[in-house]
Specification:
It is a single chain. By secondary structure, the protein is of the alpha/beta class. The protein folds into two domains: 163 residues, Quinone Oxidoreductase, Chain A, domain 1, CATH 3.90.180.10; 130 residues, NAD(P)-binding Rossmann-like Domain (Rossmann fold). It contains nine helices and 18 strands. The strands form four sheets. Strands 3, 5, 6, 9, 10, 17 and 18 form a seven-stranded mixed beta sheet that branches. Helix 4 links the parallel strand 11 and strand 12. The longest helix has 15 residues. The termini are close together. The relative contact order is 0.16. The structure holds NADP nicotinamide-adenine-dinucleotide phosphate (NAP). The site of NADP nicotinamide-adenine-dinucleotide phosphate has 33 residues, from helix 1, helix 3 and helix 4. GO terms for molecular function: oxidoreductase activity. This is Zn-dependent oxidoreductase. It comes from Xylanimonas oleitrophica. InterPro entries: ADH-like_C, ADH-like_N, ER, GroES-like_sf, NAD(P)-bd_dom_sf, Zinc_ADH-like.
Length: 319
Amino acid sequence: MLAAYAARVSPDTPLDALEVGERPEPEEREHWSTVEVRAASLNHHDLWSLRGVGLRSEQLPMILGTDAAGVAPDGTEVVVHGVVGADGHGVGPREPRTLLSERYPGTLAQLVSVPTANLLPKPPELTYTEAACLPTAYLTAYRMLFSVAALRPGQSVLVQGAGGGVATAAVVLGAAAGLEVTVTSRSGAKRERALSLGAAHAVETGARLPARVDAVVESVGQATWAHSVRSVKPGGTIAVCGATSGDAPPAELTRIFFQEIAVRGVTMGTREDLAALLAFCARTGVRPVIDSEVPLARVRDGLARLEAGAQTGKIVVVP
Ligand SMILES: NC(=O)c1ccc[n+]([C@@H]2O[C@H](COP(=O)([O-])OP(=O)(O)OC[C@H]3O[C@@H](n4cnc5c(N)ncnc54)[C@H](OP(=O)(O)O)[C@@H]3O)[C@@H](O)[C@H]2O)c1
């Protein structure tokens, strides 16, 4: 089958580690199902894998990709939850949590094998392309906003790095839930786009906000951390899921303890979070923001766009 995989690791030039070519089809395994992938989507995680973050050389070659929608062996339309091992279904009870493409081959392929418990029904209201955007970036944003920061309609949230996959997810989900969303971006065009997607305010990266916010969706890391700490209200929450620009900022501990700020880490979400997100999208009409679609054979173009930070929203890959 055709697949996109890390053939080696390349810390500084991730695309040098990418190959697109034939890989063996998944083998049958008890309590696992092989899904025919109809659409997958790219995440920054794929670039981290090519750089060798979380992938050891003995695990190579490794098929990339953490989310997909497709067809299960019984013909049903499904969405793949990409977190394996969190609850023991389909793997040993003591197996630590991993994401697809870390221990088990990922979704950037014609076929992917996952624990059967990781399959959720695809709502008929969503296309395969839309559904394939949800299980990583949208799931993470959903958990940050509603499970971890526990935001309610009328509250305010700052979303750092407006163009990213997680960030655009937080904008559209937050706006649909009645939150007052403020974004930052280095790009004027991306700030404009965020306003058109439902953000109430858009400022340059690092600019002072008109008022402090109830919570921050932080995925940028070093470049925005100090601004996040300064922008949240006393007692507010910073939900952090990534560190694209580096993870060694000053911790701003004095502000954190003096203002009693809660810092909460988030990695993806549970199967229940994903089911709730799918229902949210089906019922509200909210759809993921799609930057572009590329065929699997040309996934290099999509990853180059992601690496350059040129996208707004999700890049979908069609096998
Ligand atoms: N923990 C989890 O479960 C989880 C899930 C999903 C993602 N993540 C992590 O979250 C991060 C974002 O993921 P993604 O897929 O949304 O990535 P992405 O689509 O590549 O977005 C990254 C965004 O960060 C901003 N950015 C990058 N470098 C910056 C800098 N130096 N200064 C200011 N802003 C900068 C950019 O926004 P602007 O161009 O608009 O400024 C960019 O669009 C990644 O590190 C990823 O690994 C974690």
